[in-house]
Design goal:
Layout: E1 2-7, H1 12-25, E2 30-38, H2 49-73, E3 78-85, H3 88-96, E4 103-108, H4 114-119, H5 122-129, E5 134-138, E6 148-153, H6 165-174, E7 177-183, H7 192-197, E8 204-208, H8 214-224, E9 229-234, H9 239-244, H10 247-253, E10 260-264
Parallel strand pairs: 1-2, 1-4, 2-3, 4-5, 6-7, 6-9, 7-8, 9-10
Antiparallel strand pairs: 5-10
Helix pairs in contact: 3-5, 8-10
Length: 265
């Protein structure tokens, strides 16, 4: 059984992420925990007990409405609701890192100002702190069959082949073609390690020799390549690290309509 954690704030972005999870993993043998945090400490008024009571009641009503509708539409799916009075990022990370869920699926509104929208956002905070696989779904993205998945790798892709197991599960579920993309100045033998880890999926390889500006080259490639999902491996000194440390990269990546599967090495 696939067990998915979907944090929601009842916005269109989070509702869209929930719908995406249902379409991505199918409705049979699926358990989805829908998580909502309320009463965060961003406002002094929220610390008042009576206000917290109002927020809790409102959260329960919205959660019940959401899950009742989803259960009617997807009767074979096991839905679990979890409400907690806590801050979003540490709560999602703590629950995701327990190992009880296979993936965290989150919505994002994209980047209009890096610090405010991504590095300071819930999705960005979770990605930077969790060890669980995270799928980030751009707001307004409509699910389409995953005929092609792009795995973007650096010169040193990852240290353990098990890192890409979440990618393998999704690819096998949808019978997706895997394209290993390497953005570099020249070919390097190191990406053979990435190929070996997923050789059972018969991946193809594409080299993008660009300007040296990784975020620009990646975004331009995605605009040309009709892929359904982009997979990135976050390492201490790897490709995803370079992405996260450059605001332009995040801005362009999150303007893309392609959802991201972010793995952690």
């Amino acid at each position: 059984m696939n067990k998915i954690l979907v944090p929601v704030d009842f916005s269109d972005a989070s509702s869209n992420a929930l719908s995406y999870a249902l379409q991505l993993f199918g409705t049979s043998d699926l358990e989805i925990t829908v998580l909502h945090m309320y009463g965060v400490k961003s406002s002094g008024a929220l610390l008042m007990k009576n206000i917290d009571g109002v927020l809790e009641k409102d959260a329960k009503e919205k959660m019940n409405k959401l899950l009742n509708g989803m259960q009617k539409e997807y009767p074979d799916v096991v839905f679990k609701a979890k409400l907690t009075k806590s801050d979003a990022i540490p709560t999602i990370v703590a629950i995701g890192d327990r190992g009880d869920h296979d993936y965290i699926v989150m919505g994002t509104k994209g980047a209009s100002g890096l610090k405010e929208v991504f590095m300071g956002s819930v999705a960005g905070g979770v990605v930077s702190k969790t060890t669980a696989p995270v799928i980030v779904v751009p707001q307004g993205h409509s699910f389409r069959p995953l005929e092609k998945i792009v795995l973007a790798v650096s010169d040193h892709p990852f240290s353990d082949a098990k890192v890409v197991e979440p990618l393998r599960k999704i690819a096998k579920l949808h019978q997706s073609n895997i394209k290993v993309l390497h953005i570099a100045d020249k070919k390097t033998p190191h990406i053979e390690k990435a190929l070996g880890a997923i050789e059972d999926l018969k991946p193809s390889v594409d080299y993008a020799f660009g300007t040296g500006n990784i975020d620009k080259d990646l975004n331009e490639y995605l605009m040309r390549d009709f892929s359904g999902l982009l997979c990135l491996v976050r390492t201490k000194k790897g490709f995803m690290d370079r992405l996260l440390n450059e605001s332009v990269t995040l801005k362009q990546t999150f303007h893309s309509p392609v959802p991201l599967l972010i793995l952690h090495d």
